[in-house]
Amino acid sequence: MKKIANIFLILFTSIFFLNCEDTFLPPSLDYVSFGKSVYSAGIDPGGSTTVEIPLYTANVTTSDRTVNVNVDGAGAAAGSYSVPSSVSIAGGTNEATLTVALSDVDLGIGVNKLIISLEQGAEFYTGSSTTINYIQNCTEVTATLDISFDFWASETSWEFIDSLGGVVASGGGYSNGQAPVSESIILCAGRDYTLVFYDVFADGMDDGATLGSYTLTIGGVVKATGGGAFGASESNSFDTN
């Protein structure tokens, strides 16, 4: 009798745990996500391009599915992008492509950023958003910076700063008594920059006997000049048009 009772206890316990597993087993849900979290693109001045973003689903169904698309364009130039409001995933497959059109409309200098997300549906979950970073490609120009120093050339340095505050070129480390130099600087066409000269002794390019000077030219056109007793620093804004 005791043996029979033990057998019933084992059977009851097995059924109990089996029912628990059935109760807590998560249902099979569909899932849609982008292929990558970040995409990058460059656009030629006055041109356009497209970015192909793949989407993948966890399940394959026989019918087509439509996923709505949301766009955060706060970090991008208005009118420079076009994103479909939805993407269709054909039945019998678990892949689709979202095609984003980008164009050089008021891009200016710097990185434009689009954040794209998928809207969760009643029958599927969605993954994290993806980001497209895009810029206007640089058409390079060569600027020439001619510098004549005072005796204390070791105190002099300079920087080219773009409109976003980034330093794109710099120089310094000259020797006292330095002869005049001519520096070639590669910049982007159609952009705004600031040329800043610094003097660590805060007396500019002036040793009391000689005044130093500098001239920046692009294609033979003078874009900035300065020098002399400018103190700790001197700035010149210019464009590369």
Q: What this model shows, in words?
A:
The protein has 241 residues and is mainly β. The chain has two domains: 30-136, CalX-beta domain (Immunoglobulin-like), CATH 2.60.40.2030; 140-239, Sandwich (Lipoxygenase-1), CATH 2.60.60. The protein is built from one helix and 18 strands. The protein has one helix at 2-24, and strands at residues 30-34, 38-43, 48-57, 65-75, 81-82, 86-89, 95-103, 112-118, 124-126, 130-136, 140-148, 156-162, 167-171, 181-188, 192-199, 213-218, 221-227, 233-239. A hairpin with a 4-residue loop joins strand 12 (156-162) and strand 13.
List keywords for this structure.
241 residues, Immunoglobulin-like, Lipoxygenase-1, 1 helix, 5-stranded mixed sheet, disordered N terminus, mainly beta, elongated
Any chance you could write out the topology, listing elements then pairs?
Layout: H1 2-24, E1 30-34, E2 38-43, E3 48-57, E4 65-75, E5 81-82, E6 86-89, E7 95-103, E8 112-118, E9 124-126, E10 130-136, E11 140-148, E12 156-162, E13 167-171, E14 181-188, E15 192-199, E16 213-218, E17 221-227, E18 233-239
Parallel strand pairs: 1-9, 2-10
Antiparallel strand pairs: 1-3, 3-7, 4-6, 4-8, 5-7, 8-10, 11-14, 11-16, 12-13, 12-15, 15-18, 16-17
